[in-house]
């Protein structure tokens, strides 16, 4: 019998220490309709109310069996906080950003002077406190946030990718702003009880912007956020969507403890592409976890485990209609795996 609590086990894994077995967690969003029905906390209200958010975050543990609790469930709260227009989510669908607030360097200055106690940012921090007060001694409390590059894109809109090519001043100023906010927000989550930080930066893609611009507009800013978490002894996990194979070494150079890969990446290739960072993933959330049987999920889980990942997990956010029994099949495989 292990002497490790789930909190201790995950912390040891993420910091390269020996453990008895794999931890069963999801670093990406965990909410599903079946969990909502079980705990009475439904989207979109659970995105906006701290107690409901905590209840649904808790259901990932009490209903599915994940050995951690994690919030929030979407990546639009940060953009909404700064005044971006948001398309409201539904019980089955997450909200999305449809309007933007930064067109010039002058617009960035107008966003300064914010308070992290307001808006859904404050809701997320309060939900973390609720979960930490209840589970903080035994379970990992996972805080998650959109990464600074994707936040900059939310603030600037579709012009962002052209702007980093043609207006370096605007690009770097906006990255400095979004990163300073990200650091402050992450520290607030830690202050409220988060002990693990997941950075979801979907558009910070090597595929989209190439090595030169990834090195200039992503790596140093991810490093600032990671360094801030290192000072607080909080391990970090970085998730970027798409086929990140060619960019894994650059992703690792920010100093993150682990890299979450999506289903487009070959896990064995990913494991061999990094020196220190752990690889997390990468069951397809749609074509495996949602649409297949528990038996098939166990087979695919074995393939991913055999590739040498440090943590078995979904390759991206869990689809809201995913059956609980399918997620439990992944959890079972993770718990049974010895390193």
UniProtKB/TrEMBL annotation:
Biological processes per GO annotation: methane biosynthetic process from dimethylamine; methylation; one-carbon metabolic process; porphyrin-containing compound biosynthetic process
Pfam family name, one: URO-D
UniProt keyword annotations, A-Z: Metal-binding, Methanogenesis, Methyltransferase, Transferase, Zinc
Source organism superkingdom: Archaea
Family annotation (InterPro entries): Methanogen_methyltrans, Methylcob_mtaseMtbA, Mtase_MtaA_CmuA, UROD/MetE-like_sf, Uroporphyrinogen_deCOase
One MF annotation (Gene Ontology) recorded for this entry: dimethylamine methyltransferase activity
UniProt cofactor(s): Zn(2+)
Record-annotated Uroporphyrinogen decarboxylase (URO-D) domain positions: 5-336
NCBIfam families on file: methylcob_mtaseMtbA, mtaA_cmuA, PRK06252.1
Protein name from the UniProt record: Methyltransferase, MtaA/CmuA family
């Amino acid at each position: 019998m292990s002497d490790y609590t789930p909190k201790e086990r995950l912390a040891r894994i993420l910091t390269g220490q020996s453990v008895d077995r794999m931890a069963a967690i999801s670093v990406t969003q965990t909410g599903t309709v079946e969990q909502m029905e079980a705990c009475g906390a439904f989207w979109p209200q659970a995105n906006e109310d701290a107690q409901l958010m905590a209840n649904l975050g808790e259901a990932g543990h009490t209903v599915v069996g994940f050995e951690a609790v994690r919030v929030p469930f979407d990546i639009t709260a940060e953009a909404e906080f700064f005044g971006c227009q948001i398309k409201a989510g539904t019980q089955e669908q997450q909200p999305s950003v449809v309007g933007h607030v930064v067109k010039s360097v002058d617009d960035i200055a107008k966003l300064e002077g914010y308070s992290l106690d307001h808006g859904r940012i404050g809701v997320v921090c309060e939900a973390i406190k609720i979960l930490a007060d209840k589970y903080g001694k035994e379970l990992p409390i996972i805080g998650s946030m959109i990464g600074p590059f994707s936040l900059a894109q939310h603030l600037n809109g579709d012009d962002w990718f052209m702007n980093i090519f043609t207006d370096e001043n605007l690009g770097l100023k906006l990255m400095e702003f979004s990163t300073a906010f990200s650091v402050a927000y992450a520290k607030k989550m830690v202050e409220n009880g988060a002990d693990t930080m997941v950075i979801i930066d979907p558009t910070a893609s090597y595929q989209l912007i190439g090595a030169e611009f990834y090195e200039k507009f992503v790596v140093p800013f991810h490093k600032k956020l990671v360094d801030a978490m290192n000072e607080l002894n909080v391990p970090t996990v970085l998730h970027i969507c798409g086929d990140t194979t060619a960019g894994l070494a650059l992703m690792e150079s920010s100093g993150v403890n682990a890299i979450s890969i999506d289903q487009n990446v070959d896990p064995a290739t990913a494991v061999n592409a990094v020196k220190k960072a752990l690889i997390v993933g990468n069951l397809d959330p749609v074509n495996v976890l949602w649409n297949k049987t528990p038996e098939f999920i166990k087979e695919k889980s074995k393939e991913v485990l055999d590739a040498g990942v440090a943590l078995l997990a979904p390759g991206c956010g869990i689809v809201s209609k995913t059956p609980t029994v399918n997620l439990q099949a992944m959890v079972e495989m993770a718990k049974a795996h010895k390193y």
